[in-house]
Design brief:
259 residues; mainly alpha; two-stranded antiparallel sheet; 4 strands
Length: 259
């Protein structure tokens, strides 16, 4: 009987342990599934915001994103000794010391002229030039900030699912895909650092706009509280006295201390 009781007890403990393990495994599986879904939703949100940014950049006018002049058209005259299809060499008037080759077009006879595109010498980009030639709307700036926040949220969610995920590296690279949406020949180049400053300034300006409004609201509330306190506070004793404004004869009143 004692052996049977021991076996029964051991069997019960084993069954309880198995049930506990199954429950623990189920809980872990459910948690893992929730984490994966959270990461998936965060990535979908980030991707959707990126698509909006891409559409806004494509819709921007040329005056919103001023380009540097990289090419110019020049007129060339076909020499009398040359004919269509021949190659001639000429000096680039927009790039001192540069000589270029071009093939004479089929429809250009000796003595005739034709136009060709030539590169324009570029001045090095002045990194210290603080003037921003790009014209971005407040909506675009806010959207870049919203995308950056959503991307960071995805990074954190993905780091929970995948412990090998390079969290810091991915967060630092969040602006790279946005920067690639812009042309390379802009007067003010758009790169990751530029976008980072853009978002920081937009948040600072939004805070500055919000702060005076909060201060004004607080001041109004304080004024209302003061007026309410003054209305509730007991004031000094008052006595109404009738003062004549016209005439030269006035009634005589005897002073009474009890009054």
């Amino acid at each position: 009987n004692e052996d049977n009781l021991a076996k029964s007890s051991q069997s019960t403990k084993s069954a309880a342990s198995t049930a506990s393990k199954k429950k623990s495994d189920k809980t872990a599986t459910e948690a893992d599934s929730r984490d994966k879904n959270a990461a998936k939703k965060a990535r979908a949100k980030s991707d959707a915001l990126f698509k909006k940014l891409s559409a806004m950049v494509k819709a921007m006018a040329a005056e919103d994103l001023p380009r540097r002049v990289t090419k110019a058209m020049v007129n060339l005259t076909c020499p009398e000794s040359k004919k269509p299809g021949d190659v001639i060499v000429f000096a680039n008037p927009h790039f001192q010391g540069q000589r270029l080759k071009v093939k004479i077009p089929k429809d250009c006879m000796p003595g005739g002229s034709f136009r060709v595109s030539v590169p324009v010498k570029q001045d090095p980009v002045d990194e210290d030039d603080e003037k921003d030639h790009n014209k971005f709307s407040v909506e675009f700036k806010d959207l870049v900030g919203e995308y950056a926040t959503a991307y960071d949220e995805w990074c954190r969610a993905q780091n929970v699912v995948d412990k090998t995920f390079a969290l810091l590296k991915e967060k630092q690279a969040k602006y790279d895909p946005v920067a690639k949406l812009f042309p390379k020949e802009l007067m003010t180049p758009v790169n990751s650092e530029y976008l980072k400053r853009l978002v920081r300034r937009a948040r600072q300006n939004r805070y500055k706009r919000k702060k005076p409004a909060e201060a004004e609201t607080k001041e109004d509330d304080e004024q209302e509280e003061e007026e309410e306190e003054e209305s509730k506070a007991p004031g000094p004793a008052k006595r109404i006295v009738e003062i004549p404004t016209m005439g030269s004869k006035f009634p005589t009143v005897t002073y009474n201390e009890e009054d």
